UniProtKB/TrEMBL annotation:
It comes from Pedobacter yulinensis. It catalyses: dimethylallyl phosphate + FMNH2 = prenylated FMNH2 + phosphate. Flavin prenyltransferase that catalyzes the synthesis of the prenylated FMN cofactor (prenyl-FMN) for 4-hydroxy-3-polyprenylbenzoic acid decarboxylase UbiD. The prenyltransferase is metal-independent and links a dimethylallyl moiety from dimethylallyl monophosphate (DMAP) to the flavin N5 and C6 atoms of FMN. Keywords: Flavoprotein, FMN, Lyase, Prenyltransferase, Transferase. Residues 5-176 form the Flavoprotein domain. Pfam families: Flavoprotein. Its EC number is 2.5.1.129. GO terms for molecular function: flavin prenyltransferase activity; lyase activity. It is an enzyme of class 2 (transferase). This is Flavin prenyltransferase UbiX. Belongs to the UbiX/PAD1 family.
Amino acid sequence: MDRKKKLIVAVTGASGAVYAKVLLDQLLALSDQLREVGVVMSDNARQVWEYELGNRYFDNYPFTFYGKNDFNAPFASGSARYETMVIAPCSMGTLGRIAGGISNDLITRAADVILKERRRLIAVVRDTPFNLIHIENMRTVTLAGGIICPANPSFYSLPSSIEEVAGTVVSRVLDLAGFDVPGYRWNEGD
Ligand SMILES: Cc1cc2nc3c(=O)[nH]c(=O)nc-3n(C[C@H](O)[C@H](O)[C@H](O)COP(=O)(O)O)c2cc1C
């Protein structure tokens, strides 16, 4: 049986484009564990990436990019059997639409499909502070089987650059997605 993963990466317009960049960079290095990577970005994701990272390098990744309204993308249907979806960063707007079942674009439809098929949805939510609506939406997505993995970096690995800080979150995401990844593990002397 083919153990390589079919993965959806969604990038939305929350602050933290660096999380998407580090995730996509690390996926390049994990190509031997991947069968397919489908990427979809919201309009605001492109805008925030350009603003925060000062480039449009997302155009250079050798993954398959789908338009935000492309419901012909394979993972708009459960039949395509993508087993994991990571939304990084995940805006409160996208979180709310997923929690409300409003599948009005490819990102929210793909998340809806992943949840209905009981597959793995990992939402790297980013905002601070949270209002009650955000908290209730995180609760709803959790009850539906999704994993809320906030963009909360850790510092015990002594990261020395913004990308290393972002990497502390991304390595948790890759662990949750079931990849075999090296990385800093507390008190394992890595
Ligand atoms: C520079 C910038 C930073 C933003 N940061 C956040 C954020 O951290 N969290 C959030 O939920 N929305 C943030 N937003 C607002 C979202 O981009 C906006 O709500 C958008 O409608 C989300 O849509 P999307 O999820 O389809 O990208 C930010 C917008 C801009 C322009």
